[in-house]
Amino acid sequence: MKKMILTLFAACVITGCASVVTNTDYIPMGPDGLSVQITDASKMPVFTYLKDIKEPWAPIGMYRIKALPDNDEIIKSEIVKIKKAAAAKGANAIILNQFYDDAAAQDGHPITLAAYFVKYASAVTEADKAKIQEYAELEKLRNANN
After folding, report:
1. Residue 16, Cα to own-chain centre: how many angstroms?
2. What distance in Å separates the CA atoms of residue 11 and residue 19, rounded to the nearest whole number?
3. Is 59 left (phi over 0), alpha (psi -120 to 50) or beta?
4. Which of 44, 28, 24, 48 is nearest to 36 (CA)?
5. Which residues are CB-neighbours of 88 under 8 A, at least 6 positions away?
6. 71 in helix, strand or coil?
7. Burial letters for 103-115: b for 16+ Cβ neighbours within 10 Å, e otherwise?
8. pLDDT at 3
9. d(C-alpha 94, C-alpha 43), whole Å
10. What 8-state DSSP symbol labels residue 15?
């Protein structure tokens, strides 16, 4: 029994050491709770250039993951997380940027991933329009009080 507990403890410590410590944040640029059209995040289109988006769109938020190690497998895994978060917010695509964050460099070159969540104008439902209108009115009130 003691051996099993020690083995389990050792496995937890080893797994903990292998985990990636990152800073993530989401900056809303539009209302939450927009209609979700993409239920399989693996089908979320990823763009790196604005010119590649062929229809009218607006950003509904920006998701950042900071201080990632410069490791392709970890970066791919984090992109999957970004796509899932975008789908849950009602995005139809993401615009992905990756850059070195030399200001945070201690060990190697940490990577920051920044993704704009894109909502296509053609995908906005009537319920979405009401949420967008309410968001715009609240923004006017916030700006008037500043």
Report:
1. 23
2. 12
3. beta
4. 44
5. 36
6. coil
7. eeeeeeebbbbbb
8. 41
9. 11
10. H
SS3 61: strand
Q: Are 132 and 85 in contact (CB under 8 A)?
A: no
DSSP string, 27-49: EESS-S-PPP----GGG--EESS
What is the length of the chain? Answer: 146
Beta pairing partners, 23? 66
Which pLDDT does position 65 carry in this prediction? 95
Q: Model's pTM, two decimal places?
A: 0.77
Structure tokens at 80: 């999957």
Confidence of residue 109 (pLDDT cuts 50, 70, 90): confident
Q: What's residue 107's pLDDT?
A: 59
* Token couple for 121: 């104008």
Listed residue (125, 126, 115, 64) closest to 93, CA to CA: 115
User: What pLDDT does 11 receive?
Assistant: 38
What is the distance between the alpha carbons of residues 27 and 37, in angstroms, rounded to a whole number? 21
Burial class (CB in 10 A: 0-12, 13-18, 19+), 75: middle
Secondary structure of the chain: what % helix, strand, coil (to 5)?
45, 25, 30
Q: How far is the CA of 99 from the CAs of 7, 13, 107, 142, in angstroms?
A: 39, 31, 16, 32
